[in-house]
Amino acid sequence: MTSLLGYKKNRSLIWSVLRTLLAFGLVFFVFSKTDVAELTAALKNASALWLIISAVLYVWLTLLKALQYYTLMQDELTYAQVLNLIVWQNAVSNFFLSSAGILTYIATTRLEYHLKLGRSVTVFLLIKAADIIAIWLILVISSRLVWSQIQILQTPVLILIVSLGIIVAGCFLAVLFRRRFVSVLDNVLTWMGASKIKWIEKGMSYLQSLVSTKQDKNLDRFGRLLLYSIVYLAVTISWIYTNLAIFHLHLDIRALIFVSSLMQLVSNIPVSVSGGLGINETSALYFWSFFGIAENTLAPALIGSRVVFYLYNLIPLIYLPIYSTFLKPKEQLQNE
């Protein structure tokens, strides 16, 4: 048992190191597409107005994400508690590892708020499901608007839309038919001999947790959650536009929506560190190349946006001492 734990720890450490090396390697690649003079000029000539608008939108994104979680947690937690949870989760995810942010969320809900592990995981998965549905809807619409421009991306995008569509259908069936759907799906996978495949087995356990919530609250709350996810994605796209506008780069709205929806999917790849450092910038360079945006024009704006992004992440941290001093429930303070 000890050797197995040691093996898992070593594997986790190696994986973390490899992800970090990949991130910095991609950052170096993005830097290679610009020069110091262009980058310095972009930072010096940044628009203060767009910077303020972007900061406001980032704070709004934090509040909206907390609202998503509060929609499902309102029976157990206040909005102030949920916001405290989201600020911690985002800070750890964006400055360190996304997986560490998820662990922070789970640990905080379990140790500080005394929620069951299955409950906190179910909430997280439902929010992810709603976010994926929102991204899929926007991707379907935006890809139609730029279809003639994306050329060799057409087939991969079509495969992506169909694959996500299957996941979306599965999410709706799980919410509507709950255990009956999961039972039928499990029988089919067992018949096919695929139920023992690790990622399928893990996916089935996730579905089991998704159908564990009370039916009378499922549809209403999931409907509101989906609406908030769509609003969250719309604000995210607006925030991306303002980030580039800070550095006087105003891009076609249709292309921006399409690229942003793809970037949201890229951000969910489990190899990212520090809020998608390197991976987001490299992916953006590739996707925008289909719309005639030169790398030496886009790269300085992407690097500048990354600097601004880390500065923005400091803003919500102001809430943490405010919560601890004025908003933390008395019973929590007594338990501590």
Description:
It is built from 14 helices and no strands. The protein is mostly helical and 336 residues long. The protein has one domain. α6 runs antiparallel to α7. The chain is globular and about 60 Å long.
Summary tags:
336 residues, mainly alpha, globular
List the topology elements.
Elements: H1 2-31, H2 36-44, H3 48-73, H4 79-95, H5 98-111, H6 117-145, H7 154-192, H8 198-210, H9 215-246, H10 253-266, H11 279-288, H12 295-312, H13 319-327, H14 330-335
Helix pairs in contact: 1-11, 2-12, 3-4, 3-9, 4-5, 4-13, 6-7, 6-9, 6-10, 7-8, 9-10, 10-11, 11-12
Low-confidence parts, pLDDT < 50 over ≥5 residues? Answer: none
How would you classify the helix and strand content by structural class?
mainly alpha
- Mean pLDDT, rounded to whole units? 82
Number of strands: 0
| Rg, Cα atoms, Å | 21 Å
Q: How far is the N terminus from the C terminus? A: 34 Å
* Helical content (DSSP H or I, runs of 4+): over 70%
User: How many helices does DSSP assign?
Assistant: 14
Approximately what portion of the residues adopt beta-strand conformation? Answer: under 5%
Structural domain count: 1
